[in-house]
């Protein structure tokens, strides 16, 4: 979905539309225009991905495949690293904070 530049309420509207179109898909996390699929197995992951792609096709939603990551053991999502062991802060973000000077 694309919107004209400068419209203040677009992020809120975009979030609502993403939940309208994809919100009922289990294993899918939605944050504005970021989607993250998680599954216990590759088959479960691929099944969820198939649902997302079919729904996107149905509603003519396009994805930026330059940002697309497929079937990763570990992903950075919203500044957090997720993997089988759980989640942790992104080490790169932590380093930036450590290097901040005191006010």
Automatic annotation (TrEMBL):
Domain Reverse transcriptase: 1-82
Signal peptide: none
PROSITE patterns in UniProt: RT_POL
Gene Ontology BP terms: DNA biosynthetic process
Species the sequence originates in: Cuerna arida
The protein's name: Reverse transcriptase domain-containing protein
Segments passing through the bilayer: none
